[in-house]
Amino acid sequence: MRFAKAHACGNDFLVVEGPCDPNLAKKLCARNTGIGADGVEFLEMTGALSGRIRLANADGSIAEISGNGTRCVAAWIAHEQKAAAGDIVTLDTDAGPRAARIVEAGATLFRIATGMDIPAVSQTQVTLADKTVVYGIQVSMGNPHFVIVVNDENFRAHSRGWHELGREICFHKQFPQQTNVEFVRLIRADEIEIRIFERGVGPTTSSGTGTCACAAATIAHCGGKSPLTVHAPGGSQSVEWAGIGAEMTLTGPAELIAAGEVLLG
């Protein structure tokens, strides 16, 4: 079976043409016994620069959308179709259609601006097992996010490391379908730093929808300004958003790593 592999700020995905297969995704994503990835984008082409994608996470669960994964697929299609700057790749996802405009096109490295639809933002809270109340900002980017604003450079909150706190909130009974959890630290009005505990994966170096969710939370509730630069461990992305009721645009890199065949036993 043929596959391609790409990453966006270290958040890596496999692109496989064909119907979504969660069990296959688990095998392919295994870091030691498979190819290794955070998820598989199953692609069915519908035109030269258009297609339908479904995302299966590394654990086999289905996600509505990945901003970085969508960008990786757009980069692969752009590479295969020799698309140039200004061309638009349209991809239907479980969260609706997304238009990815090629900003820069290289041999393997692309910069892409993707329309990410209109975020839904609200303040909320969860009560942990030890009765600690965690206040956060709930954001829907077509998939669920719980954003926690922190002041600590190590992203600790409520006397816990972000890995530990992120995991408990991700699997909290308040979120029966689980939720992505992000921790955001304001550097200045137009710049933030984040950490991500991704549903179905765990800690990740980057997340496109997570970047958007943190930007939405910061601009809506913390005095953030658009365009907003968002730094994650794997790299930086830029978010443009006029505020509640407006569509958000995410711009960032996508790099093709490999293309080849996987042997299926």
Protein traits:
alpha+beta, Diaminopimelate Epimerase, Chain A, domain 1, 2 domains, eight-stranded mixed barrel, 46% strand
Kindly describe this structure.
The protein is 17% helix and 46% strand. The protein has 4 helices and 17 strands. It is of the alpha+beta class and 265 residues long. The protein has helices at residues 22-29, 67-81, 162-170, 208-221; strands at residues 2-8, 11-17, 39-47, 50-57, 62-63, 88-93, 96-105, 109-115, 120-127, 133-140, 144-150, 180-188, 191-198, 202-204, 228-232, 235-240, 249-261. The N and C termini lie close together (11 Å). An 8-stranded mixed beta barrel has the order 1-2-3-4-6-7-8-17. The mean pLDDT is 98. The chain folds into 2 domains: 2-114 and 252-261, Diaminopimelate Epimerase, Chain A, domain 1, CATH 3.10.310.10; 120-247, Diaminopimelate Epimerase, Chain A, domain 1.
Give a brief outline of the structure.
By secondary structure, the protein is an alpha+beta fold. The chain is about 15% helix and about 45% strand.
SSE map:
Elements: E1 2-8, E2 11-17, H1 22-29, E3 39-47, E4 50-57, E5 62-63, H2 67-81, E6 88-93, E7 96-105, E8 109-115, E9 120-127, E10 133-140, E11 144-150, H3 162-170, E12 180-188, E13 191-198, E14 202-204, H4 208-221, E15 228-232, E16 235-240, E17 249-261
Parallel strand pairs: 2-3, 4-6, 11-12, 13-15
Antiparallel strand pairs: 1-2, 1-17, 3-4, 4-5, 6-7, 7-8, 8-17, 9-10, 10-11, 12-13, 13-14, 15-16, 16-17
